[in-house]
Amino acid sequence: MTILLTGGTGYIGSHTAAVLVEAGYEVVLLDNLSNSRPEVLERLRQVTGRTLPFVEADVRDRPKLAAVLREYGCTAVIHFAGLKAVGESVRQPLAYFDNNVGGTLALLQAMQEAGVATIVFSSSATVYGEPQYLPLDEAHPTSAANPYGRTKLHIEEMLSDLCRAEPAWRAACLRYFNPAGAHPSGLIGEDPNGVPNNLMPYITKVASGELPSLGIFGNDYPTPDGTGVRDYIHVMDVAAGHVAALSFLQREAGWHAINLGTGRGYSVLEMLRAFEQACDHAIAHEFKARRPGDIASCYANPAKAASVLGWRATRGIEEMCESAWRWCRASKGATRSP
Ligand code: NAD
Ligand code: UFG
User: Fold this and answer.
1) Best residue among 122, 128, 198 to mutate for probing ligand 2, ranked by most atoms within 8 Å of CB
2) Ligand in closest contact with the CA of 219
3) How much is the pTM?
């Protein structure tokens, strides 16, 4: 089976490519390189021992996508491509609707044209909005707190309508919680442009000396230590979830929303301490005001993934921090010695 990975050179796409190849799939990576670099391909060659086919293209280019699906004989698509910065989406909502919703619409039309009707979509726990209860299961009401989240909801709804209208379609919306960590080889990992928005890449950059100090956004939340709690999930577990979703969709048609989380939340301070263990030195930090729009706690009920996909997260925060640190040192070399 040949799988098209849109956004295939990005953080989660590149790890999923490595895991799919290991599982025996053929893959084609497609990306416009707006948030990733072509060097990932050489690193994937080292990880997999193979040169993976890569197409530099935009998902909004429908004719190109249809041609790629036909040329490589793809039977399914994993759709990672999208913009993902919440703050940027508030400032530039049209760019987000164009890229994420418009891009998915073009992709689905191209798939229809090429006779491909199986898709795994990168959704997010953000579709649950402010939690009404925890842990979050898939029956929790959905809502969007910002344009980024709204694009995820719109895309989920688009896929749901399509599966209802055309029985041949099969779609799995994987609602990721907080992916973190890197490939065990240290060859691929998360490498955001500029100053990171998210906790783990920010901690990594402070640990390596690239940034001076971590700002912890709020220490007065109703959580055990007052800092925000999230369900961090190893990116290799997320990648494995996609392999499980592909085989699930071979058995099941229709639309499915499935959480990819561990079921366990960790606070910002717990993550900081785990990273200090991994890098073996103290990480400068200071408490700051809460970040607007942040919630106190968010973690998954992962029971559905276990029952329908036969998948569960197996890696803990130590492995996330150790692999992120290994990747950081291997890719850039730490500028600060422990
Ligand atoms: P990423 O930015 O590393 O990867 C996305 C890739 O898509 C990038 O390589 C980018 O160049 C590419 N891309 C963007 N727009 C494109 C377009 N129009 N055409 C072709 N390529 C395009 O991000 P990631 O962390 O790997 O996230 C992958 C997906 O998972 C995204 O859809 C994101 O919204 C979703 N997601 C991520 C997280 C997270 O915390 N990382 C959490 C929930 C959901
Ligand atoms: N945090 C800090 N300092 C930082 C960055 C984050 O204290 O510099 C805190 C946040 O306040 C929060 C926790 O660390 O308590 C996690 O923040 P992230 O930005 O890493 O993750 P979020 O849970 O806020 O958001 C992420 C993605 C969203 C996605 C959401 C749910 O960025 O796109 O998970 O999947 F919608």
Assistant:
1) 198
2) 2
3) 0.97
